[in-house]
Every structure is written in structure tokens, then in C-alpha cells.
Amino acid sequence: MTSFRRTTLGLGIALLALGLAAPILPKWALFLVTIAIAKGLVALGLLLLMRTGLVSFGQGLYFAAGAYAAGVGSQALHIGDAVPMVLLGGLVAAAVAAVLGLLLARYRAIFFAMLSLAFSMILYGLLVKTSELGSTDGFNVAARTVFGFPIASGLGRYGVYALAALCAFGAAVGLDRYLGSYLGRLAPAVRDNELRVEYMGASVRNVVHLNLVIAAAMAGVGGALTALAVGHIDPEMAYWTTSGEFVFVAILSGTTSVAAPFAGALLLELLRSFAYEHAPNTWQLVMGSAMLAVILFLPEGLWSIFRRRRRAAT
Amino acid sequence: MSSILESIGLTKTFGAVTAARDITLSIEEDTVVGLIGGNGAGKTTFLNLVTGYLKPTAGTVRFQGRDITGMAPRRITRLGICRSFQIPQVFDTLTAYENLLVGLGIVSMGRRAFVGSSLGTARPEAVADEMLERFHLREYRDEPVSVLPEGVRKLLDIAMALAVKPAILLLDEPTSGVSADEKFSLMDLVLGAIRADKVTVLFVEHDMDIVRRYTQRILAFYDGKVIADGDSATVLGNPEVRRLVVGEPAPEEAAPC
Q1: Which of A35, A156, A160, A270 can bridge A151 by disulfide, Cβ–Cβ 3.0-4.6 Å?
Q2: Is the residue at A149 inside a domain?
Q3: Does residue A294 form part of some domain?
């Protein structure tokens, strides 16, 4: 319980800091943080899957499903506010996972990873071929208001940024609470020993299925937020390299803390921005070296720096 | 005494191999029964059939009068049959305390489904600590179990099965992998902890000194069949059991080598 309170407090302070920083941050930084939070949400879902012992190479599927749901919601259903658009994104992604989970929850390890990748590439193929959704070009998405504030003026400029920060706070606190509950504690138990979980009276498949849906909902919200921040969506969101980037963030961050995926995503975005600026032709090399360094020196992810410090201090 | 667990004509074949042949037996409530037999006699197969891990080729398993043949292990657990494993099946990255909390948490989330558990409304955290105390595992409470010695893991495995207060507990070779001089103290501890809850126990064992000391009744298996069933002294004195299970050479077989 105390660890839950400490996490909530820490996340609350981070939320407050994001709020206070908003007026002094330049526009590009607001955008960068918003995107980092949106990707951090997808990586947060991956954290839950990794704790369950699964790595999905297809989170782009739910990311794109959430983004397209928000886009279609605004275009076809004429939803004008960003909040219901993001909610719709999360719900649609969760619904997709609820159906696909019937099959995915039966697989583990590399089979699970490849099947999730295959599903995401099927969506990519469908989106590319659907001219109503703009084929490879995609289409523009915009919200007129956020929480009722017009987005073009005044406080509305910070609307999507604020919405992203609140979503991240809610998702991180909620997931932390879930991981501490009896149901959430089954995730590492499933990873360690499925046979014993069944022999203790629980259904492993149901646990995996539920965690898939939760992770997908987070990816869907992240996708919808990305669509709103960028103002445009295209099939690349479902492409396997997008999914690979989420795995990159998840490994970079580690699974020790629910705050880590956001820190990891922010670091990735900063790293990419600077690498792109200073080494436009070899920026992938910089990214790869960073990944290698994390795997070699911090195998439990970035967050383990804090842990080591704490251990060394005591 | 009424019967809690019954097996009627239970048979399991794997291709040409018959691991269980027509096993018919009944376990009475509130007793401690030993199950003995050499390697490959079908002891673990019998536990796997009773707990639903294997589906029998023929025959029926009844628990408290109810047909449970072919049910999934998790459903059988909810009815009140729990088991421990010859090789401890624990959650390696969790602490001893968290290991206990997994099963207790599952029960507390679905008390209505767990008709066989007499856990009542006890708090899982309190029961977990009480179990650690009872099995003398307190000092390992917050250690990840991957670093614990095998004997401790073995105890934890049994504690996890007992923690949810089943009606019957099946122990698969509780003393295997434990050194000879620790066997009796381990069994004293385990059976003391179990009998405090008046749980029926069926335990598989191949150490004759252990079964002689702790059981009221013994079932002897050989080649997938029950070859003797009765009070401990009688079964251990049975010449067929002595020859096939205990391993005493019969006079006519002793010579050629």
C-alpha cells in the first residue's frame, strides 16, 4: 500500500510539473512531450504484457485502431471534442483485442510475438487498400474543442497536451493499483509458472486475455492522442517498425516502474530529435548505439538507475 | 467414516504403455493414506488423473460423491482438491510471501466458486503470514524463491497447496530431494501443519520408513495396478509388496546375476 501511495505521489508531482512547465515550453517541446506521452502509454501496456511474460510485436495494431477510430469518429460521427475521440480510440482498440485475444491468448513466446505482428500487418494491408480511409496517404484529424475549450485560442492550445498528461496519470496510477491487486499479481505468476496458476484455481488464458485488452486500450488511447497531436493519421501507424519502436521504448524503460515507460519514451523522442538534427544521415546509428548501451549496462532498463542508487544508499 | 475420494476402474494408456490399470479405491475423510510403489508404478499418473491434468482412458473419479472425471485442474482445485509437486512448482521471481498470496488471492476473488475451500472470510495476507509461521518459513518471507534451498522450496510448495484450506491434500513425494537426516523432521513439520486443519492427506512416497511412521493406511501400486490396500503394518508385511515394492529379493530370484 505504501509503495502504491509513493507511486501516486510521484506521478502527481510529475503531472503538476507538466502543468507548470506548459506556459514556458516552446511549441516544439509541447508537441514532443505530447508524442512521448502517447507512445509512453503504448509502452505502459507493453510493460503489463512483459510482466505477464509476453512481448507483442504488434502493438501498432491497437495504436492505429485507436487513431483511426478517433479520426473516423470526428469525420463520420462528427465528434468535435477531443475527450470522446480519445475514449473512442481506447474502446475500439480494446474491442479489437477482446476478439483477437480469443486466439492470441493461446500462444506464448515467439509464437505470440509473431502472431501479434501478423495481425498488425493485416490491418496495415487493409488500411493501405481502403480508399475511403485515404489509402497510404491517410487523412487529417482535428478536434474543435478539448474539454469544451476551443482548440484554436487561449488555453485550448494546451488542450491536447493536458489531455495526454491526464491520460498518462490516470493510466499509470490505475495500472499500478491493478498490479498490486490479487488479479494483477497473477501476471508475474503466469510468467513464472502457468501450471501452478491453473492448479491454484485460476484460468491462465483469462488472465492473459484480460491483460491483452488492458494493454490494447492503452495503445488505443496513445494512438488517438498521437492523431490529435500530429493532426494526421496514416497506415504507417500499424506498420511493424512502429510496433518495433514501442518494444524499443519498453526495453529501454524496463518493467520495474509504471513511470518508466514515459521517461523512456521522452528520452527516445529527445534522442531522435537531436540525432536527427546533428546526424541527419546516421541518426539510426545513434539510436542503435543507445539501445546497445542500455542492454549492456542497464539490462533491467533505465529505471534500474534509481534502484541501484537506492540500494547503494542503504 | 465416509469416503471423500473414490476412483472406479481408472485406466490410462499412452500408446502401448498402460500407466494405470483399472484402479479402484476409496479414501476416507480425515485420514492419512500413503501411496507406495517403485519408479513407473503409476503413482504420479494417479495424482495427475485425479487432479485433472491427465484425462483417463476409462473409469471414473468421484469427489464427495460428485463425478469429477475429465474436469480441468482449476475446477477440481475449486472443489477442494489441492496438490503439491515432486519438483516444487513455485513462482521463482516472487517472494515466499507473494507465492502464498497468489493462491489465497485467487480464492478471495472468487469465494463462491471455491466451494471446497474452508478459508472463510480470512484475510489472505494474514493467512499467508500464518502459513509461513506454521511451516517455519518466516525468515524467508521476503526472499525471491529462486535463491532458496530446495528443501525450503519444497515446504513452500506444500504450504501453497494447504493455504487455501482444501478438503483433501495430495502430496507428491514430499521427501524427495531432501537429505536422509532431514526427512523425519520435515515430515513432522509438514504433517503437523496439515493435521492442524484436519485435512485428509494422500501422499506418494517411496521411503518405507516414512510411510510406516506417518500413515494409517497404505496403498501399494505396481505396474499401474493396486496390489495391496490396507492398514500400514499389513501392507508392509505383504510378501508381494515386499518383493515388488520394497525390493526384497524373493528366495528363488536371489541367485542369478
Answers
A1: A156
A2: yes
A3: no
B53: exposed, middle or buried (Cβ count in 10 Å: 0-12, 13-18, 19+): middle
C-alpha–C-alpha distance, residues A197 and A56, integer Å: 22
Q: pLDDT digit string (tens) for A61-113?
A: 999 999 999 999 888 888 888 889 999 999 999 999 999 999 999 999 999 99
Among the partner residues B72, B105, B160, nearest to A182 by beta-carbon distance: B105
Decide if B106 and A192 are in contact by the 8 Å CB cutoff.
no
| C-beta neighbour count of B248 within 10 angstroms | 12
CA B18, B24, B28, B33: dihedral to nearest 10 degrees? -40
Cβ-count burial of A153 within 10 angstroms (0-12 exposed, 13-18 middle, 19+ buried)?
Answer: exposed
Q: Of the candidates A219, A299, A224, which has an alpha carbon nearest to the alpha carbon of residue A44?
A: A219
Question: Which letter, b or e, does each residue of A200-228 get, where b requires 16 or more Cβ atoms within 10 Å of its Cβ?
Answer: bbbbbeebbbbbbbbbbbbbbbbbbbbbb
For B215, residues 6+ apart whose C-beta sits below 8 A from its C-beta are: B32, B33, B34, B203, B232
Domains in chain B with CATH codes: 3-246 (3.40.50.300)
- Kindly report the pTM of this predicted structure: 0.89
Spatial neighbors of A233 by CB under 8 A, at least 6 apart, are A64, A67, A68, A71, A138, A139, A141, A226, A227
User: Total structural domains in chain A?
Assistant: 1
Examine residue A252 and state whether it is found in any structural domain, yes or no.
Answer: no
Residue A59 located in a structural domain: yes
Whether residues B91 and A193 touch (CB distance < 8 A) is answered with yes
Cell triple for B246: 520394497
Strands of chain A (E only): list them: 139-140, 145-146, 149-150, 232-233
CB contact under 8 Å between B98 and A185, yes or no, is yes
Query: How big is chain B, counted in residues?
Result: 257
Instruction: Please tell me if residue A289 touches chain B, with a CB cutoff of 8 Å.
Output: no
Spell out the per-residue pLDDT of chain B, length 257, in tens. 588 999 999 999 988 888 888 999 999 988 899 998 888 888 899 999 999 999 999 999 999 989 999 899 999 999 999 999 999 999 999 999 999 999 999 988 887 777 777 777 788 899 999 999 888 899 999 999 999 988 889 999 999 999 888 999 999 988 887 787 888 888 888 888 888 888 899 999 888 888 888 888 999 888 888 888 888 888 888 888 888 877 766 555 444 44
Compute how many other C-beta atoms are within 10 angstroms of the C-beta atom of residue A304: 19
Whether A205 and chain B come into contact, CB under 8 Å, resolves to no
Q: Which domain holds residue A140?
A: 2-240
